[in-house]
Write a structure and sequence with these properties.
- The strands form four sheets. Strands 1, 2, 3, 4, 5, 6, 7, 8 and 9 form a nine-stranded parallel beta sheet that branches. A three-stranded parallel beta sheet has the order 16-10-17. Strands 11-12-13 form a three-stranded parallel beta sheet, covered by helices on one side.
- It is of the alpha/beta class.
- It has 29 helices and 17 strands.
C-alpha cells in the first residue's frame, strides 16, 4: 500500500521538541520530589515528559509512591485490578476515518469475508455465554461510531431489523446480555448525546469513550490522524465526557499517545480530563494507551511509541491526576518484559483482559494469560484482583444510596460485588436477589409491569403510617414537625408516602404527563437582537411554543438589554410565549432603567414578556443562601417581594426549591410554607419545580454540602405535592437535574410534568445554557408509557396545545 503524500507521520521521540536544558529538567524533578505529593504545574509536567534513564527512574519513584498512597487511602493497599471480560464487536462499520485504525472495515470488505454489517443477536449471546462459562463478568460492547451516517448498508440493516439507530441496537443487545447471561455490559459506542447516555444508563453499569487527544489540529488539518473523522472533534468528545458526568455514569476515558500530538498537547489532554473529573467525580479510570502501527493503514509506516517515552507519559499522568485516580495501561500493548516499567510508572489497573476473545482493536497483540498477568504483577510487589465494570468506589457509594447505578440495575451489579466493591469470586452470574422488587422499566429495560407502580394501602404498619393517615385526611392540619418527619421517610414508609402523593396528583390534575416544547436563550451572552430574532424564528419552525430567557445582559447594554431581547423574540415568533428574567434580574433591570419595580414590570410586559421564571429561590433562608452563593445572592425576603410584585403586575411565575446541599428538612418545610403564603396572596405560581443541587453547577464551592439521594428526591417531591395541594396544582420533575430515570421516579410519586424539552436548534446551539440536553417527544412518550400514563403537550401556563 502506498502512503498518501499528504500524510504527516507522527513524530518519533527524535522529532519531538528538543529536550529541555539539563538544569530545567533537574529543577522540575527536584520540585516534584520535594513537593510531598503536590501536583506539578503545566510547564513542569511538559518538562517531565522528557525524563529518560536515571531521570525517568526518579520520576517513576514519585509516581509509584503517589499510586501507593492512593491505594492505601482507597483501602486496597498493594492491589492492582483488572476486569475479566469478553469483547463484543457489534459492528466494524464507522463514519470516521482514523488513519491508524484496523478495527473499522468497509462494507465491501465485510461482504467479501461473509460478515454481516452488524453482529447478530445469536452471535452476541453465544460469545457472552462462553465468556460467562469462563468466569467473565464484563461484556465490552465496542463498535464504530454511527455507521448509518456514512454507509447505506448500515442504515438498511437497522431498518430491516427494526432499529432507529446503532445506539438503539446497542441498548437492546446490552439488555439481552443482562437478561440471558448476567454479564455486565460496558458500553463503548463512541460519541453520545446527553439523552442517549440517559437511555443507555439502565443497561450499562459503566460506559466509556477515549478522549484520545485535545489536539484540534490532528482533526482539522489534512493528513493528520483524525482528519475526516467527524466524531474526533476534541470539543465534541469533551462534551460527551461532561454529559456522562452530569448523568452520573462511571466513565472510562483516556489518551492515545504517539499519533502526532506534541508534548504540550499531551499535558493539555490530561488536564482536560482532570478538570472534567473535578466537576463531576465520574472518571473511574484514565487509560494511557500507546500507539502501535498496524499494517494496511495510512499510518503503517509510523514508529510505535518508544517504551521510556511511554513510561514517562504514564508517570506524568499519575502525578497530574493525583493518588485518587485509577490509571490504566493495556497490558497487551507492551511486551511482557517491560510491564514492570508501567507498574513503576504508577498504574493501578490493567483494564479488561479476556480469556476468550481477542482485542479486536489490536488483534496483532494477544491478551496475556490472566495467570501470567497475576505473576507479573506479583513480581512487582502487587496483588492482582478482579473488579467489575464499575470500579469499587462507585459500587460502595451506590450501596449507600448514591445514583451512580440505575436503581433497576443496582441489585444485579451489587450481587456480583464483595463488601469492598471488587468482584465476588463465588458470585453466580444471572443471580438476582429474591428480595428485589420487579423493576420499574424505562430506556431499554424490559417492561415487566406496565402499571409501573402499585399502590399499597395506607397505614399498613409502617413507622409513619399514622402521619400519612393524618395527611390523607387533612393536610392543612399537619404541623411542620410532622412534615419534617415525612421528609425522612424510607423503605415501606417512603413507598406509602409516594403512593399517597401519586393518588393526590391523579385526583388533582389527572394522569397525563405534560411537557412544553421550548428553547433557552442565555441573556448574559449579549446576543444582537437580529440573532435573537433568528433563534426565535427557528424555535417556531421546530414547533416551540415558548422561549425561556434568563441571565443578566452585559452592563454595557443597560436596561435596553432586557427590552431588546424581549422585542426580538416577539418579532421572530409573534405567537411565542416569552418566559423571561428571574427575580434578581427584574431588580437589576429596574435599577438600570431608574424605574420603580411596578413601572419596570409594565415596561417588560409591553416589550413582550409573558411570565417570569421563579428561579433563584434556592432555599428561602439567608444563612443557606449565603453559603450557596458566597454571599452574592439577594435576601430571601427580597426574592419574595420581587416575585410577589411580578404576580401583582400580571406576570405569573414558576416556583422553585433547590435541595440537597447544606439545608435541613426543617429548612425545606419552611421554604414550602413561604411559597404557600405567596400563593395564598397572589395565586401567581403556575408550578413548583424541585431541583437537586449539583456541585458541578454551583457558582462557589460549598463546604460540607451533600448530594441529594434518590430517597431524598422522592420524599421531597411527595411532600411538596401533599403540602401544596389546592394551592399549586403542578409539580415538575426537573429532568435536566434528575436524569430521565430520576424524573420518572418523581412522576410515579406526585409529579405530573416534565417541563420543557429544550430544543437546541442548529443556528446557535450554544445560545442556551443547557446545550446538548434536550428531550424528544419519543423520550417523553416512552418514559410515560412505562408508568401507564398518556402524554400531553402544554403551553407555559398549562393550556393544551392543539
Amino acid at each position: 500500500m502506498t502512503v498518501p503524500l499528504t500524510l504527516r507521520m507522527p513524530p518519533s521521540a527524535a522529532d519531538q521538541p528538543q529536550a529541555p536544558d539539563r538544569t530545567v529538567l533537574e529543577a522540575a524533578l527536584g520540585r516534584l520530589e520535594d513537593g510531598g505529593g503536590s501536583v506539578p504545574d503545566r510547564a513542569d509536567a511538559e518538562v517531565l515528559l522528557h525524563a529518560r534513564g536515571a531521570d525517568l527512574d526518579r520520576l517513576l519513584a514519585v509516581a509509584s509512591t503517589m499510586r501507593d498512597t492512593g491505594l492505601a487511602e482507597a483501602g486496597r493497599p498493594g492491589v492492582i485490578t483488572y476486569s475479566r471480560k469478553v469483547f463484543v464487536p457489534l459492528t466494524h462499520l464507522c463514519q470516521d476515518r482514523c488513519h491508524y485504525c484496523i478495527f473499522v472495515q468497509s462494507p465491501g470488505k465485510l461482504a467479501k469475508a461473509g460478515i454481516s454489517p452488524y453482529m447478530e443477536a445469536d452471535a452476541v449471546l453465544e460469545v457472552a455465554r462462553q465468556g460467562a462459562e469462563l468466569g467473565c463478568k464484563e461484556a465490552l460492547l465496542t463498535l464504530g461510531d454511527r455507521p448509518e451516517n456514512r454507509w447505506p448498508v448500515a442504515r438498511q440493516w437497522l431498518d430491516d431489523h427494526g432499529y432507529a439507530s446503532t445506539l438503539e441496537y446497542v441498548g437492546h443487545m446490552a439488555q439481552l446480555i443482562l437478561d440471558e447471561t448476567g454479564l455486565l455490559p460496558h458500553l463503548n459506542p463512541g460519541v453520545m448525546s446527553w439523552a442517549e447516555l440517559q437511555r443507555l444508563k439502565p443497561v450499562g453499569p459503566s460506559m466509556g469513550m477515549m478522549l484520545e487527544t485535545t489536539s484540534s489540529r490532528l482533526w482539522t488539518e489534512k493528513g493528520e490522524a483524525h482528519f475526516g473523522s467527524p466524531d474526533k472533534d476534541p470539543a465534541l468528545r469533551l462534551r460527551v465526557i461532561d454529559d456522562a458526568g452530569r448523568s452520573r455514569i462511571p466513565f472510562t476515558t483516556g489518551v492515545l499517545l504517539g499519533i502526532g500530538e506534541n508534548y504540550a498537547e499531551r499535558v493539555d489532554s490530561i488536564l482536560a480530563l482532570r478538570d472534567a473529573h473535578a466537576r463531576h467525580g465520574h472518571l473511574q479510570e484514565v487509560i494511557v494507551q500507546n500507539f502501535r502501527a498496524k499494517s494496511a493503514t495510512a499510518m503503517m509506516g509510523a514508529e510505535d511509541l518508544e517504551t521510556q517515552e511511554y513510561a514517562a507519559a504514564v508517570a506524568v499522568t499519575r502525578v497530574l491526576l493525583g493518588p485518587g485516580m485509577r490509571v490504566q495501561a493495556p497490558p497487551n500493548l507492551t511486551d511482557a518484559a517491560e510491564l514492570q516499567l508501567l507498574v513503576r510508572a504508577g498504574i493501578d489497573d490493567w483494564g479488561g483482559v479476556s480469556p476468550l476473545t481477542p482485542d479486536h482493536v489490536n488483534p496483532e497483540r494477544p491478551w496475556p494469560h490472566i495467570e501470567d498477568l497475576a505473576r507479573l504483577t506479583a513480581e512487582g510487589g502487587y496483588t492482582l484482583r478482579e473488579r467489575l465494570t464499575a470500579h469499587p468506589h462507585y459500587l460502595r457509594e451506590a450501596r449507600d444510596g448514591a445514583d451512580w447505578l440505575d436503581d433497576r440495575l443496582r441489585p444485579r451489579v451489587l450481587a456480583l460485588a464483595d463488601d469492598y466493591g471488587l468482584a465476588r469470586q463465588d458470585a453466580l452470574l444471572g443471580a438476582f436477589p429474591a428480595s428485589t422488587p420487579a423493576p420499574l422499566s424505562a430506556g431499554y429495560l424490559r417492561v415487566s409491569d406496565p402499571s409501573g407502580h402499585k399502590k399499597p394501602a395506607l397505614n399498613n404498619g409502617g413507622r409513619l403510617g399514622g402521619l400519612l393517615a393524618d395527611v390523607a385526611g387533612d393536610p392543612d392540619g399537619v404541623d411542620d414537625a410532622a412534615w419534617v418527619e415525612l421528609l425522612g421517610a424510607d423503605g415501606s414508609d417512603l413507598e406509602e408516602l409516594a403512593a399517597l402523593a401519586d393518588q393526590v396528583r391523579r385526583a388533582r390534575v389527572g394522569d397525563a404527563v405534560t411537557y412544553a416544547v421550548n428553547r433557552n436563550i442565555d441573556g448574559s451572552l449579549g446576543l444582537a437582537p437580529e440573532q435573537v430574532e433568528e433563534l426565535a424564528k427557528e424555535a417556531v419552525a421546530l414547533g416551540a411554543t415558548e422561549v425561556c430567557a434568563q441571565g443578566v445582559p452585559p452592563t454595557s447594554a443597560g436596561a435596553d438589554g432586557y427590552l431588546d431581547l424581549a422585542r426580538a423574540v416577539k418579532r421572530g415568533g409573534p405567537g411565542l410565549h416569552l418566559h423571561a428574567f428571574r427575580p434578581a434580574e427584574l431588580a437589576d433591570g429596574a435599577a438600570r432603567a431608574g424605574l420603580s419595580l411596578p413601572d419596570w414590570l409594565t415596561a417588560l410586559r409591553e416589550a413582550g414578556v409573558d411570565t417570569v421564571p421563579g428561579t433563584g429561590a434556592r432555599i428561602l433562608d439567608d444563612r443557606v443562601r449565603d453559603l450557596l452563593t458566597g454571599g452574592t445572592d439577594i435576601p430571601a425576603e427580597r426574592w419574595v417581594e420581587l416575585v410577589t410584585a411580578a404576580h401583582t403586575a400580571g406576570l405569573r411565575s414558576t416556583a422553585t426549591i433547590v435541595y440537597g446541599h447544606v439545608e435541613s428538612a426543617r429548612d425545606q418545610v419552611r421554604h414550602l410554607r413561604a411559597l404557600a403564603r405567596v400563593q395564598d396572596t397572589t395565586g401567581g405560581f403556575t408550578e413548583l419545580i424541585p431541583m437537586p443541587w449539583l456541585a458541578s453547577e454551583s457558582p462557589v464551592p460549598v463546604a460540607g454540602a451533600r448530594a441529594a439521594t434518590l430517597r431524598e428526591s422522592r420524599a421531597l417531591h411527595a411532600v411538596a405535592r401533599l403540602m401544596l395541594d389546592g394551592r399549586i396544582d403542578h409539580v415538575q420533575a426537573a429532568w435536566t437535574k434528575l436524569g430521565m430515570r430520576g424524573a420518572q421516579r418523581m412522576l410515579a410519586g406526585g409529579a405530573d410534568d416534565l417541563g420543557g424539552v429544550l430544543l437546541d436548534g442548529v443556528l446557535d446551539p450554544g445560545a442556551g445554557p443547557e446545550q446538548g440536553r434536550e428531550l424528544t417527544v419519543a423520550d417523553v412518550t416512552r418514559l410515560a408509557a412505562v408508568l401507564g400514563r398518556p402524554v400531553r403537550q402544554r403551553t407555559t401556563t398549562y393550556e393544551q396545545v392543539g
